[in-house]
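pinning this so it doesn't scroll away 📌
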Amino acid sequence: MQTEKFEFQAEMRQLMHLIIHSLYTHKEVFLREVISNSSDALNKLRVEKAKGESSIASPDLPLQIKIEADKDKKQLVISDTGIGMTKEELVNRLGMIAGSGTREFLQAAAENKGKMDANLIGQFGVGFYAVFMVAERVTVDSRPANPDEKAHTWISDGEGEFTVVESAKQDRGTTITLTLREDDLEFADDMRIKQIIKKYSNFVDFPIVVGDDQENNVGALWHRPKEEVTEEEWNEFYKFVSSDYREPLDRLLISIEGRVNFKAVVFIPAEAPPALYRLEDRKSLHLYTNRVFIQDDATEILPEYLSFVKGIVDTEDLPLNVSREVTQNSPIMVKMRELLTTKILGHLKSMLNKDREKYTAFFQQFGGLFKTGLNSEFTHRDKMLDLLMYETQHSEPGQLQTLQEIIDSSPEDQDQIVYVTAESRKAALQDPYIEAFDKKGWTVVLLTDPVDAFTTTQIGEYKEYKVVAAEHATLAEHEVSEEQTQELEGVVAKFKAVLGEEVADVQLGTSLVSAAVSLKVAPDGMDRRMEQMMKAMDKNFTGGQRVLEINPDHPLIVTIKDALNNDEQNGTIDALIQQLYLMSRLNDGNFDRVGETVSGITELLTASIASK
């Protein structure tokens, strides 16, 4: 039989090196990851059998995971009777295709200077490679469930290469043999293996056999009476379904009987995972039908903005051989989605009212993803708006308030919810448009979460309060009089003549206090924060033109007005107007003309000194 040699992809080599040489804490999690992969393979096989569409190799084999430890050989062997892998799958999945999870794991390691807790490895989708923390050599012998496919063996020491050769394996499934390092021979002990299984894999859906004994509890925890399930069991179950080593922040048990029948266990994690916004790897609730696992990524069962939750849904109303196409278009799934969404939003509202500290912790971790639903959710939009939280200029950093609380704490004459968008609290407080409202005592919402530019700015109205950007909001006492408009008509015309097409328009401002001028978004333009993010993603993105607002009461504007009235037409006025515009660009976050701005300031200062 011919042996083929392959090199790991570059990113895979980096991953291997990091795992072998840097991950020392919680090495035991390698077994959790291997068992999890075996469970996935068994689930896929069970679904194939339920479909009954094709023949299965070794059809009488029991669906189980078997573990054998051999101290004399310094080996640990984990076998399953699952779907198995073809030669191509062995080559691609275990060495050639580095996924986004690989890159994110490496990036996270770099940010932590190579110090990573091995507990995290499963959250990046690279859990199999944890075996190289403890093994100096790994052999994966696999026979696919398709009886027409041959068995093959994958072998590697994790140092850059792997080989694949045809195998004589007769039974369907995968056998992983770890030749353990001298420092890790504890994992060749049956008692140690049993301890790890109890800790991490007690709720795997298939028997895990060590020696002659089954070590896990195969059974649907959610069908047991609630009073019989301990807090520890729920927490361990959460860790199993989420690949998270921490305990959950909160838990919700749901039982529905009626037009649809299902039970659900929903967990809210304590911390957001690294790939929270990565749609292609998003997994939320596991789907079961009559206690039989169907999917671990039933994305259709919840809206994307709630996909941070983990857990299971078990229904009696779907067939065992349900396909992804059926789940996507099933009226049963639509109804389950509606009921689950209602229950989860109701639970969040209850948490907000009864345990403010816990709700705040939730929103700080998942509020960004939750807010993305504002652009797509219409049925539950009002419930979502009640759950939003923000900082204001009057709150302490990190102190969040609901929109209702912001309204209640605002002055009686404040008839709008005014906001500014910025990349940080400090930048928001320096926004030139916040000053007039702050001086009046009005509350201004500080939108510093990147998703706010895409979501919160689209709220429009909340309980008859218009939600308005500070640059577009108005105060009666700041309205420009007809007299001022006439007096400054020449100034506006001069600004337009000097700036030309640099700006979309020049207007007299209504909300500026200490700033002479400021750029604001046109009524139909893109939010400033959103535009900055678009530029960061696409260097060729130019954005729209801004409207330049002039503060009619500012001394510099008065000086320009007097100079024009006295017919003092000289280059200094033009230079001053150009400089005011460039400085407003800087304040708007456009740093592409810094050199020109500094040069212009220097020239103006030189001219000022020369005139004395």
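📌 and the second one:
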Amino acid sequence: MDTNRFFSKTVTAIAAFAAFTLVAASPDNAATAQETSQATTGGGGYLSTAGTTQAGLVFSVSFAGSARSERLTGRVYIAISHEEAGRGRGNARGPIWQAGETGVPLFGRNVDDLRPDRPIGFDDEVYGYPLAAFEEIPPGEYWVQAFFNVYTRFERADGHTVWLHMDQWEGQNWRRSPGNLFSEPQKVILDPDAGGTIHLVCDQVIPPIPEPEETEQTKIIKIESRILSQWWGHPIYIGATVTLPTGYHDHPDVFYPVNYRQGHFSTRPSRTQSEETLAVEWPDGNIPRFITVTLQHPSPYYDDSYGVNSENNGPYGDAIMQELIPAVEERFRIIKEPWARKLSGGSTGGWIALAHQVFYPDFYGGVWASCPDGVDFQGHQIVNIYEDENAYWIENGWMKVDRPNRRSPDGNIRSMMKDENRYELAVGDNSRSGGQWDIWEATYGPVGPDGYPMRIWDKHTGEIDHEVAGFWREYYDLRYILERDWAELGPKMVGKIHVYTGDMDSYYLNNAAHKLHDFLESTTTPYYRGEVVFQPLAPHCWGPGGVELLRKMTRQIEEYAPPGADISSWRYR
């Protein structure tokens, strides 16, 4: 696709964000805090009145100079739980780790240029989820914890200056990002009616993440992207974890097909099948050997960039195609031919893999996408962004019916659309939560006048902006693009598209996959000759992996490799 199309300025003006002055958490600090901290209160758009004579429960939060000596711009949170440590992975670290769309109350607000040891206040007008205000907390005994998510200033090449969390190679996860600050959980008695002030000090700092280690079969590539660094005005790193096949070093003259595996940020190597299993699958000893490359491209908005050029994320597609993949293919013995380059991935990675096959059809030789994110925005999970008026509700006369967001295979609902979206709003305004709905806005949507993504819908009300939806369709609706451009794309897609999903996908992703399937099956000039499979009652994320995926890729190579191609030397015991 034409890169310039992604950076067109076809957006309409939206209202500017209002700026509010922070008031200190106590009268003694009022002048200093007002001088050093200017901030908005995040998604709620409220002015904090903490530190005034107003009655009510107030939290005072600061970060210790011993933990960070520089001033801080970012987002500060308070999490409140009945338990010091919750159940599940990570929860032992305190209430902050228990927050989520179905988790404990989380309250967030922005801070700007805050000095060390200078408290800022939280009161009833700070935005929270699932409780909107502290006054809704029942009186009782609780564990509370505070956290500072540090933002970085980006002066982008498109002329916008924005503040976002800079990934530290943790995969854009603010709760474990090096340099972020937190307090130890503190046990307190809370009574909103009685009021009072709770003081929390973030004196703990998250340490750097160790660099992943290489082994004989696992190799690590991490490079600074010139393309992305110039666009973001800040060093941006991309990389790959390369898993070499058994026998790679013993066969120095062999070049291999490659599986470019897409997905969420991870430096873990590919899980390889045992030689015993492979020997059973290929008893003649002609075991296919692939190099597997797991790509890493975290952005300031999410743990991966979705691998495409976009107005808000920048030219990640260009960086991957012009910098990262060439770096991989120069270092390792990869067959540099389209028929030998395969794509795979699940969920987010399923969408990325299919998008790369669509946007770069001459470069890749086939995609196996499992449970991909919405490949047709008539089914953006359970929302039709083109026709529905509201993402959260279905208007039904006297009733408004909640739209679900996540389900179990038996049909039980796990969360609602409004829940995850409003939780993200507590974590960060301006699509800065690092969450799923926000990265879709940052990837698919136009940039707004303030430099941040234009909302596909209002996070509070769910009201859909159909002008923004039209932008999504033109550039990122994969089913629409395939149908629109089939005369050009069709001949390049024959035998290449393979999609798999459960028909009870946990996030309703099967809806969009069915629309893609309907179109592909209707093609005649040419017929797509691929595979779209729906597994009854299977949840997210169903699809082939391991030996099954290897077998499918090998058979496709055997059928579509050009005459004279080497399809034998990389098959050995």
